[in-house]
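Issue: copy button drops trailing tokens. Both records pasted manually instead:
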Amino acid sequence: MNQLETLQTNQKRISDLVDIKTLQEILDAFTTTTGLMANIVDVEGISIFPRKGIKKCCKFCRIIYNLEGGKNRCQAAYKRAGKQAALFGEPYIFRCPSGLIEWAAPIILNAEHVGTIICGQVLMWEPEEFFWIELRKMNQPLTDDFEELFEAVGELAIVTGNQVQASAYLLYVVANYIMKAGWENYEQSQEFAMQRTLYHAEIENRKNLEKNHEPVLASFLIDEGEMLANLQSNQKKSKAYLEGLISSLRYEAHQNLLLMRGKMTELLVILSRVASQMGLEADIFQGINSQVILQIYQTDSIESIGVLTSRAVDAYLEAIDKSVTKPENPNIVLMIDYIVNHYTENLTVDDIADSACLSTGYAGRIFKEQMGMPIMDYVLTVRVEKSKKLLLNPHYQIQTIAESVGYGDAGYFTKVFRKAEGITPTQFRKVHKR
């Protein structure tokens, strides 16, 4: 993907996920309340908003923007600041090429940096003689006339370090919350679209069979043994299998509401029997079925019935996954929770045993019996899985990732990762390069 395509993808992603007008109103309200300018740029440092209607620039910056090369210089600075903010996963305070204080807060979606909140255009001290000298020097590549620029400095806000940190964090939290909500809605719509695609593909397949006079079963039968085999495989395969069943049964209903209700109810009942064979507690699948089946019989939309059944499938898969991996011993649960919450630290077996108030020897023995591996092997597994998610983001350096999962040395982290995965972190990144 070339630079232009990457730019268009990121711009489209943000605009698809959230209402740009809503974001603009939030930033305008922030500016009105605090007096601080705010903007959102894509990964190339270019604003996602139309040039008109966004309170994004103070007079000083408008002058810089209108100078030849000024706009490109600002965008390049925002691009660099955004990358730094994404690298550390928190607001990044910097001094722009024209001499003002600004900060960048990363917008992260699905472990990918998709944009940056730029805020500031302020000073953190009263201008003194050296400031004017430095300002002139920094902007000489753009202009020889500094009278208007110096005059605009008088309109800049002077803020404290605490104000900078507070406002940066506020925008970071608000924007990422909004984007996360938008991302969840987007994923949901994609899931529904996939379901509709499967359904229409099944219809076309059945039409072709009928057209060619091939026999088509009058009723689609669900094979419990086949369902059990599929649910015992990975979650992705299980999901595809169950969505296929929904599509097939939906076709068999022939747009008949009563038949659709009956077939989806039958699917959920059979799914509950299979889940019971896999050890899922009865109250879990009974709770899923009672709620969803009630909703199925309350709606008159065949489309909604399909969506409700798909959501029930997700609930089953999540519950099955938890029941398979969740240990029964509460002491094991305590130790695993401690590992998950402290894997970034220099963990020892003693620390983990202490979290469950157990002796080191006893903790190690029951952990291996329950989980099938020593405690520190489990710690390694958690760290490697966490690092794999970080490696998908090309902005993170290997050293940074190593430190973020509890290894101070990148070389040792690489050795551990290669032992666990069979390839180095760099090779893993290349294989999974977007």
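Record 2 (pasted manually too):
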Amino acid sequence: MGHQVFSEELVASVVKELQIADLAHATIGEVLLVASRLEQQTGIPFIRMDQGSPGLPANRVGIEAEKAALDRGVGAQYPAADGIPELKREASRFVKAFVDIDISPRACIPTTGSVAASFGAFVITTQCVPGKDKVLFIDPGFPIQKSQLRIIGAKWEQFDIYHYRGEALREKLESYLKQGDIAAIVYSNPNNPAWICLEDSELAIIGELSTRYGVIVLEDMAYFCMDFRQDLGQPWKAPYPPTVARYTDNYILMLSSSKIFSYAGQRMAVACVSDKLFDTHYPALAERYGDSGVFGQTFVASVLYMITSGCTASTQYGYAEMLRAATDGELDFAADVREYARRAERMKKIFTDNGFHIVYDYDVTRPVGDGFFFTVGYGRMSGGELLRELLYYGVSSISLETTGSGQPGVRACTSRMREELYPLMEERMKAFRLDHPLS
């Protein structure tokens, strides 16, 4: 092709050197390695849309509070298994201030990032009731969560929500739940990779069915208040972000510090368990662990503690202080992360001006917003083909196929976009279009 930045031979040699079996189905980590190696070999900059790592500086409030905690000597003692009281209290206040949901401090459990929260949640939810041992993914979703289930040997079902928005979701969900073996449902909202947002009507369906079938909902709020189509993120003030917690008592909300406070390197989140679920007694848990069988206690002491034995003490103080400052109106995290929406708008325009289309383009009632991720397709190319072709033009992404999506296209992340890369991206996508004329 006439305008490629990296030749097919060069890319093929790097793929071979890195022992990647199939570029079309490469994981995020593999794409990352290919892009880095090509940059290293040639000195030509890549436009990195692969890994969803924050592209803003870590929050100073957290840094200062964490330093102060270390200076006080907290590094010398093991932190309590269920977390430091300050973080539990502030997490409870934060959820009330920003979601308008009541969860007591005891049921807000610090975890080493939401990855540890979902791992622990998959372990316990698939063991509560004999015969209920599968997880249902409302996809597209986060591929790592399926890898976690492979580790624990649990099975899963999945479906792509693309064709099942709104009321259509009810029948689709129920077709899985009535089999009687689904223990938990998992999704992220806003969604990674598609940035679609489940609306209240859909969360009401999920909540109602989870109650009827005794299924626990794991709601990943990694991109909390990042639906910038409305003014979310004002403490103690509506509008509040939609959540399944309004419609069922069977839930765990996962609230990470990684994106909203750009605190990804410190691996910190809280799993907020509904009080009713926290106190639910499961005989199967009591038998397996030789403990009380009460969900919350087993989750903390018999599951999460075995995975990470608590969370870094100083980071808990850092997170607690960021949550407190946000709740008290001193820290506007939503304004800080709005930068991602500005980047998405500019990046999407470059793509659509050059013949690409947005794959997941609509929620139930309105166009998808701009934020941390978006999805693009080109003509009839499969996701794997498009991922490979974009690499030749110095743009890295991940194929939607790896996220449980049935739609052809790739996921783009806005976090690593920089001002000086926009003209470069425009030039490269013009070249891409010239080399790939659409019929």
